[in-house]
Structure formats: structure tokens, C-alpha cells
């Protein structure tokens, strides 16, 4: 007689990286550097480093529910920091590095973060944020050397102990904090829970949504500071897909080179990014033969651009719609749906919609 308590584990995000490290240990996270170098690491190595970051943060007093802010590009180091913060039960507050120091300082003040982890090239902005934040901020630096009073994280990782324990907290605990872009009013702070982001990942992986698999190499151009990069840092390790990160270079030439070098099959970002890629390829008479699908969101996809991409590159373009408050995916057009830039697909299971007009349900 089975009592029905099958697999009663908490739905916490550390389990995605632990799964990848165990079952897809050599699948890679790849980062393009400013100097043209490529940094790569397997999921097993990334988890080991990430646990060491957790140990460093714990030594600095970070504990369950504490807020740690990040101001960084899409990179291996940023992914390591994400899992380190979330895995230990703290909250990762991603900051949009395209906003002003005053706006970001107000967000950090509201979150109560005591540590800000910044890409090296963002140190000037990080210092201005710290100067305007009354609670005081300890600055840690990734992806380059530190200067002045900031602390470089890499030497601390090298000295940290292995095997810091993750999990052990409730799945409804907060894991992330992201402020909206303020499209319809003042930016709002949206808190993500482990459970919500875990379920969002399972929805994203369905065959009629992003449909990622371990055979894919996924280029995440959508920033990690924008609604959790649409969940890609969770979805890719969940299936063991290669995660390809462009750093700060999202111009057409850089992306074309990266797509070819890493044999990217799925690329994800806003329409303007793919316009830049298309114009570069047209000007060079070049191709990206490995690329099979482009997933767009964040802004409406012009029908003419969608048609050019599909005709010129031979790819499937999947449109989507979402909100920061939806973790963020609301609807995605499936890879086998009719191509129509005016439509953004259907909601996946777990999401429901109501069409309204001026606050009232619209007529059928």
C-alpha cells in the first residue's frame, strides 16, 4: 500500500542546477568576453563554484531571506551568483543597468539589500548607487578586476570551502526581486518565489512553448536583469541545454560570430536584436546555419521583420507576450503554430487570461 507521498520535495530552484550537474555535467555554459575570448564551464563545475559563492556570502552575513543585488551582464559569473543567492534561500535583486543611479538607489533602498555584486565595467554606476543608498552597500565585483573599496569575488571563491548546503527551506520562499520597467506607472517591485519560478520553468519547456531540450544550444540575449532572462538560466540546466551568454556585446556581428562558433539552435531576445543580426548577415552575405528558432518578446514583432528573418535565415520565429508579474511568460506561439506576428500564442497550463475593456470584461 503506497500512501501517496511520492517525491515530496520542495520545488526550489537549486534542484535545476543539481540535476544538470548530476546528469549533464559536461553540458556547457559559454560566455563571450569583450576581448574575443570564450569562457566555458560544464554544469558540474558551475555548481561547485556557485556553492563556493554561497559560502562567501554566508561568511558576509547573508542568510535566509536576505536581499543581494546584482548589476551585471549575462555571463557565467552572473549565473553562478544567481544560483548561489537563491540556493541558500536569499533573494536575488536584479538591477537594470540601463537605469539611472538615482532610480536604482531607490530600488535598492526599498529592497534593503546590503550587498551589490557588479560587473567590473559597471563599478562607476555601482559606486553612485552606493553613495545614494542610506543602508550602505558592500560592493563585490565579477567579470574583471576591482579597484578602490570594492572586493573582487574571484579570489574569495578560490579560498572558499566546497559543498555549501542548498535548499532546506519552503518552496514559497522568495528567490528573486525585479522592478518593472514602469510602462503603465511607477516601477513596481515584483517578488518571485521558488515555487512560481519552478513551475514557470516547467511551462517554458513544454513542446508548444519554448520546447527546449538537451540537444539545444540556447543564446540568451534577453538580459538577466529583465524578468529573470525569461527563465532561461533555469530552463537550460533543467534539460541540460548549452547556455550561451553574450556578455555585453549584442551587436549583429558579435552575435553572428557567437551563433556560428557555438552552433546555437535557439536564440532569445527582443526584436531590435534580431534586426541587427539580420542586417549584418545581409550586408556580409553570411549565414548562421545552425540556428533553427528565434523566440521574441518584450515588444511587438513587426510582420515585415518576421518575414525577412524567416525567409533570409530559414528559421522559425516564435512570438510571445508576458509581464514581469507573470514570472514573466504569459503566452508563446509554439514552434508548430502558423506564423503570424500579430499573434503571440496561447497560454500554457498554469496561466489563464481574461480579456477586459476599461476594467470590465470584454464582450464575447
Describe the structure.
This protein is an alpha/beta fold. It has 2 domains: 43-169, Rossmann fold; 194-347, Rossmann fold (3-Layer(aba) Sandwich), CATH 3.40.50. It contains 11 helices and 18 strands. Strands 2-1-11-10-12-13-14-15-16 form a 9-stranded mixed β-sheet, with helices on both faces. Helix 2 (43-59) crosses helix 6. The longest helix has 17 residues, at 43-59. The protein is globular and about 55 Å long.
Question: How are the secondary structure elements laid out?
Answer:
Layout: H1 14-23, E1 28-32, E2 38-42, H2 43-59, E3 67-71, H3 76-87, E4 91-94, H4 101-111, E5 115-119, H5 123-131, E6 138-142, E7 151-152, H6 153-159, E8 174-179, E9 189-193, H7 194-204, E10 217-220, H8 232-239, E11 242-245, H9 252-262, E12 266-269, H10 271-284, E13 293-296, H11 303-313, E14 316-322, E15 329-332, E16 346-347, E17 356-357, E18 360-361
Helix pairs in contact: 1-2, 1-8, 2-3, 2-6, 4-5, 7-8, 9-10, 10-11
In short:
Helices cover 33% and strands 21% of the residues.
Write out key terms for the chains shown.
2 domains; Rossmann fold; seven-stranded mixed sheet; single chain; nine-stranded mixed sheet; globular; 364 residues
Amino acid at each position: 500500500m503506497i500512501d501517496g507521498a511520492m517525491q515530496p520535495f520542495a520545488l526550489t530552484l537549486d534542484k535545476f542546477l543539481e540535476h544538470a550537474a548530476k546528469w549533464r555535467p559536461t553540458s556547457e555554459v559559454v560566455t563571450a568576453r569583450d576581448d574575443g575570448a570564450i569562457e566555458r564551464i560544464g554544469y558540474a563545475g558551475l555548481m561547485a563554484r556557485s556553492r563556493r559563492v554561497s559560502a562567501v556570502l554566508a561568511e558576509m552575513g547573508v542568510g535566509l531571506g536576505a536581499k543581494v543585488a546584482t548589476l551585471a551582464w549575462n555571463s557565467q559569473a552572473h549565473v553562478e551568483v544567481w544560483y548561489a543567492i537563491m540556493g541558500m534561500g536569499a533573494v536575488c535583486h536584479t538591477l537594470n543597468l540601463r537605469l539611472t543611479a538615482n532610480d536604482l538607489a531607490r530600488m535598492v533602498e526599498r529592497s534593503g539589500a546590503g550587498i551589490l555584486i557588479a560587473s567590473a565595467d559597471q563599478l562607476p554606476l555601482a559606486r553612485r548607487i552606493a553613495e545614494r543608498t542610506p543602508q550602505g552597500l558592500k560592493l563585490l565585483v565579477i567579470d574583471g578586476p576591482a579597484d578602490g573599496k570594492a572586493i573582487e569575488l574571484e579570489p574569495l571563491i578560490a579560498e572558499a570551502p566546497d559543498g555549501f548546503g542548498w535548499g532546506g527551506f519552503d518552496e514559497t520562499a522568495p528567490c528573486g526581486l525585479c522592478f518593472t520597467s514602469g510602462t503603465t506607472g511607477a516601477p513596481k517591485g515584483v517578488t518571485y518565489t521558488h515555487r512560481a519560478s519552478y513551475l514557470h520553468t516547467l511551462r517554458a519547456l513544454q513542446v508548444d512553448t519554448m520546447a527546449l531540450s538537451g540537444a539545444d544550444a540556447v543564446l540568451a540575449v534577453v538580459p538577466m536583469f529583465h524578468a529573470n532572462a525569461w527563465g532561461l538560466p533555469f530552463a537550460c540546466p533543467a534539460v541540460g541545454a548549452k547556455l550561451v551568454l553574450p556578455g555585453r556585446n549584442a551587436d549583429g556581428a558579435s552575435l553572428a560570430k557567437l551563433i556560428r562558433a557555438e552552433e546555437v539552435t535557439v536564440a532569445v531576445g527582443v526584436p531590435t536584436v534580431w534586426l541587427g543580426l539580420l542586417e549584418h548577415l545581409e550586408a556580409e552575405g553570411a549565414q548562421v546555419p545552425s540556428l533553427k528558432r528565434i523566440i521574441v518578446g518584450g515588444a511587438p514583432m513587426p510582420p515585415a521583420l518576421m518575414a525577412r528573418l524567416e525567409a533570409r535565415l530559414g528559421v522559425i520565429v516564435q512570438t510571445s507576450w508576458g509581464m514581469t508579474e507573470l514570472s514573466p511568460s504569459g503566452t508563446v506561439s509554439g514552434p508548430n503554430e502558423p506564423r503570424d506576428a500579430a499573434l503571440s500564442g496561447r497560454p500554457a497550463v498554469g496561466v489563464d487570461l481574461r480579456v477586459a475593456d476599461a476594467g470590465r470584461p470584454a464582450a464575447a
